[in-house]
Sequence to fold (385 residues):
Amino acid sequence: MNAALLVFAGAVVGGAVGWVAGRRAGRDRAEELASEARPVVVPGLRMDAEPTLEGALRLLVNEAAAQVDVPCAVALREQDGGPIRIRALSRGDLRLVDREVDIESLAGLVVTEGVPKVERARPFLHGLGTRDRRRPITGSLGVPIVVGRRTFGALIAFGEPAVGSTAALARLDPLARGYAPVLLPAMAADIEERKAHTDVLTDLANRRGFEKQMARLKDGPRALVVIDIDLFKAVNDQHSHAAGDQVLRQFAKLLKEAVRDGDTAARIGGEEFAIILPGGDLALGVEVAERLRSQVEARVFFADGDQARLTISCGVTASPVPEAQASNLARLADSLLYQAKRGGRNRVVVAGPRGLPEGPRTVAAPGAGDPSPWVGPVAGGGRGV
Fold:
């Protein structure tokens, strides 16, 4: 009897211990799940407000650079299979922002493979924190930016960190993990906002996008080219607005091909366009404008089976020379453009060495101002793209 009681008591005690252990394990798992569900607290970000993508990226690259003491950048891929672009730099050449990276580069491999990488030999990009661009920074390392199973970015450090590659990766990885849940929704919001700043017809920046980019550069150096297609009204009057739209799309394609990575091409009016050249000076603005003017003059545009020869007029200025105030650039470039139109069209008018009061100098082409751009039907009924 006593033996039976002992067995019974042992079973009761064992069951109680098991029950307590089970409760404790369940409570620990619940706490773990609750912890996983809490928002990630990222230094410098208010979690009660939705941060902008630009603000979050700026904090991330600056904090990463402070951790490893070399320049850092973030590259993002907005959709699976899409291009991977640099979206933020801790320091360096702003023209690198929005540059597409090669899929076989370190950043491309980090994103596509979803694992940390170290590259010791090849230079990644020029102009990232060195004043002598003939001596590019050699080597880079990076960690993926991941939410769930989706790898949508890479946090990259350029050069050889003093702490060593292993320690640098160990410092960057928690930053990438901490910021990832903030960056993903911010990137989605940025995509929607960018749609609102994009011209539907040409896929260039619209006026809002143009103004946003000008403001983003603050007082930084830039050149500005404002462009108007000469006598474009004849296209719509002699044919149709649909034909005019085809020509505008062809011109926008030419404009995209004429600019560098990091530049902004925008449609700011019906047939008025602009190019922002961050870091550029007046000479670069003139070079881009004159090259584009020559290309347009030599090109045949197509619409509804007809072909047209078009010309453009351009106004070019730059900051801080000749215009010290970047906020005045758009107004000054518009004034120069109107002078080009009044001067006979098919020309580039440039701000003088001290701005507009000095008087413009003009680069003009012979035969400017042809009263009709249309030169007849295309053999075989060719159509534009």
The chain has nine helices and 14 strands. The chain has a mean pLDDT of 80. Residues 53-196 form a domain with the Beta-Lactamase fold (CATH 3.30.450.40).
